[in-house]
Amino acid sequence: MSRYRRNLLKNRIFYFAFFIVILFIVLGFRLYWVQIIKYDDYCTEALKQRGEETNVYPDRGVIYDKNFIPLTNRDKIKTVFVFKDDIENNKNVEDFVLKYGDIDKEKLSKFLKSSNKIMSVPLSSSVSQKDIPKEVFILDKTLRYNEEGILSHVIGYVKESENKGESGIEKVFDDILKKEDSEDVYFELDGKRNVISGAGYTANKSQDSGRPSSVKLTADYHIQKIVENVMDDYKVNGAVIVTEVSTGDIVAMASRPNFNQNNIDTYLNKGNMEFFNKAVQVSYPPGSLFKIVVLLAGLQEDMNLVNKEFYCRGYEQINDLIIKCSKEEGHGKINLKNAFAQSCNSVFIQIGERIGAKKIIEMAKKLGFGEKINIGLVEEIKGNLPEGRELIGPAIGNISIGQGTIEVTPLQIANMITIVANNGVKKSLSIVDEIVTEDGYPVKKFNREDDVRIIEQKYCEIVRDYLNEVVISGTAKKANLEDIGGAGGKTGSAQAILNKQPTIHGWFAGYFPRENPKYTVTILVEEGHSGSSSAVPIFEKIVRRIQEINR
Questions:
Q1: Fewer CB near the last or first residue (10 Å), C or N of the chain?
Q2: How far is CA 270 from the centre of its chain?
Q3: Which CATH number covers residue 434?
Q4: Residues 209, 231: one domain?
Q5: d(CA 336, CA 227)
Q6: Residue 13 lies in a domain
Q7: Band of pLDDT at residue 199, cut at 50, 70 and 90
Q8: Phi, psi for 457 (deg, rounded to 5)
Q9: For the residues 422-443, what does the mean pLDDT come to?
Q10: Do residue 194 and residue 247 come from a single domain?
Q11: What is the pLDDT of residue 278?
Q12: CA-to-CA distance for 278 and 223, rounded, in angstroms?
């Protein structure tokens, strides 16, 4: 054989061997890909083909408080899982479900008529293992929402059939929170759709932890819990907001009545406003809280008002409109500071007539009234400020004391009192901090507007002094907080219509401690009659409990 042919044969053998080696490498890599890397995915697909799937973990990301305490996906509950066919064909299974499951005959009948194949209901009482039929499985299921109902109006709720956020943070960040995979259970079935004996069920847990699927709020779980517990202790309807003065973080926001996020259907036809976040979604007359606005507008117009002596005869008359003062017999001679502390209507109507409605409304707009604060909730409304002909004539009487067509949200009041506590500097209030992965890795921090001074410090220092006097000797003196640094604030009693009936709502908005305030607290009590009697005790209780956890 010639050298040429020998070399040709060697080359062919070499290339063939090289091809075989490459082929084995490719096949090896493919086997590694299928059996190792994609093992879980292919197992899941196989299970889907021969089984029935049900969730034991919410297919949505976690909502955290500011300290990464989970506000969702935290509580587990023993749950009964059973197939529809087994209920229909086995009386013992049906009896077990009705006896030990949190379900009645009506709800069970409704399930049996549905297209669902697997029923899951909470276990209502303990049961011995020997009493559990072989067709029934009892597993730990993670609830989307905790049983406490903490921050329910801010978090919102989900339409389970579509895994779609319907309100609150669930709605705003629906695309972020909605997950492609979650922890599921697959019940393995034979050809007749019976659970395979010895196979039972298989758990599959998503490994997609790096995906941005969670939201971190500014709310503080511990302060939020204090607020909600106090509201429930006093059995009031309304709203409470707590802000951190230095940052503008909303650390607590609560609304009453509350609702159970795990049982939405119960409230759909009640019509009691359980779903309304009254902190942002309902507007009210501000009453005497609006005297802060009038005071700032008056000081900006004439600083000498602080030295002026006024006279209150118990009422003011503007044309045919008569408005009574808070003290029926009148306060007599009184200076501006005491008029504010005692919430004298007469004096503030006199100031309103002096400076005019236009300047008062301009100051109100500067303080954020009549517009959304934009804290990150789609439900927020802008309230209402009078305009045009509503500013003419005797209307100045109602405008000066926060009545008439003026309507504000508790959030707008919180924004105002936070500005005052910061000596005229406006902070960008927010309830949302950042987007994170489910294990807490930061992805996107939400930028806020820069701080901006909107009121001269000298005016706010006077207002702060007057707010302090309200708590020391005025309408909020029942809030005895001197032992923990004192407080400042303003009460309000607002005439309104609720359920087509006239009523009076109680307000209080204040800060603590008195010097270098750390928090503001805004309280609205529906049908509270007066801020002094209804809102001030709630303020004192909240402040004391917050101080306890901050020691």
A1: C
A2: 21
A3: 3.40.710.10
A4: no
A5: 33
A6: yes
A7: very low
A8: -60, -40
A9: 93
A10: no
A11: 97
A12: 18
